[in-house]
Predict the 3D structure of the following.
Amino acid sequence: MSGWVIIAGLGPGRESCITPEVMAAIAQATDIVGYIPYVRRIAPRAGLTLHESDNRVELDRARHALQMAADGRRVVVVSSGDPGVFAMASAVFEALEAGDATWRALDVRVLPGITAMLAASAAAGAPLGHDFCAINLSDNLKPWDLIEKRLRLAVEADFAMGFYNPRSKARPDGFARVLDVLREGCAPERLLIFARAVSTPEQKIDVVRLAEATPEMADMRTVVLVGSSQTRLIERAGDPIVYTPRSVS
Amino acid sequence: MSGWVIIAGLGPGRESCITPEVMAAIAQATDIVGYIPYVRRIAPRAGLTLHESDNRVELDRARHALQMAADGRRVVVVSSGDPGVFAMASAVFEALEAGDATWRALDVRVLPGITAMLAASAAAGAPLGHDFCAINLSDNLKPWDLIEKRLRLAVEADFAMGFYNPRSKARPDGFARVLDVLREGCAPERLLIFARAVSTPEQKIDVVRLAEATPEMADMRTVVLVGSSQTRLIERAGDPIVYTPRSVS
């Protein structure tokens, strides 16, 4: 039997967001590889080996998956959200490119998933309904100056924005700096959405104006969305709706 | 019975990309509203009325959906891809904000879907695996100068990019201009992906260098992805893999 690797997106949290093709891949797998909390979302069954690994060992995990596929196993690498957005797909291809030449002949595929930014956008209305960008605010793998440069240019372009990994214990000050950069280029009324644990039972969506935003509103389970200058708030009895119109006025 | 509107994403094409929560919403609906080819993806059944409408009547369609919900019906507005990305969610909220004040009390929700850009990225590897932006190249609803400005700033920020609606019969020259702008700021080796009819039986993924890209490679069924300066090509016997590494070198 020939092996394969499928890098699959589990979506942001709730089971009803996982696509049928991802469920089918998991049903056919012999091995599941991934970060501990994502592997724990997979139901154990006979014939399926679950390989949990810690954060920050993405390349080891990727090599392990590729080697198992080379040995004839059917491996699903699970990512939260979409595997192609700040997740495992790039790590697997880095490992493949740098690894054994025979790995290039392997059957390696990516199955998309609902990425956190778009689940957060749906939960709030449609704040990313016009041109937008996605920026990973972690400086583990890129210099902080590049993050600031991209932020300033995104503000100048008047993109709506989605921020991944806005804040961690190791980087408590970075997000405060991000808010400073936004305040230099945006009006105090600019709309921000702090979407925590989106699409899980603990989901919490907070809509605030830039003037009221504080660094403590974000943590590593939060995706932050920033509206463009055109983004609007519809007040109503329940949760407000935030959306960006299709036209530029 | 109280009515509702759910704006649901059908994903880019193949049925196995539609999430279970979207299928459940369709199963509970009394009415489906949408652009003709999207409504035709819904299986007819007793008790379900299908309302097809033409392109460019998004606001009429949105008002119709909201009025039916106000009358107690359970309405699903179907979008291709993700409804929050250049699709129906913003149109529904524009209609809601401008419409009858009682509409604000309606139960209106958005269910995300796999957007074309991320399906195209998965099909090609992981070209959007680092910071990226999404730009709608249609100038129906925004001035062309703004599109060019965003393009130039996205190049300066070294974002990977996803372009929606790159070319139509009404705008044959716009995409040629886009390629010119890219050539001013990017090396001739920059990687582009033309993903046509992604995730359908007619899917066609073409990977080319900027130097070889021509306007005719895109049409309205194509999503175009542009790598960042860091994006890499892995050559192999079958289709090549395009990915953007997680680190910036």
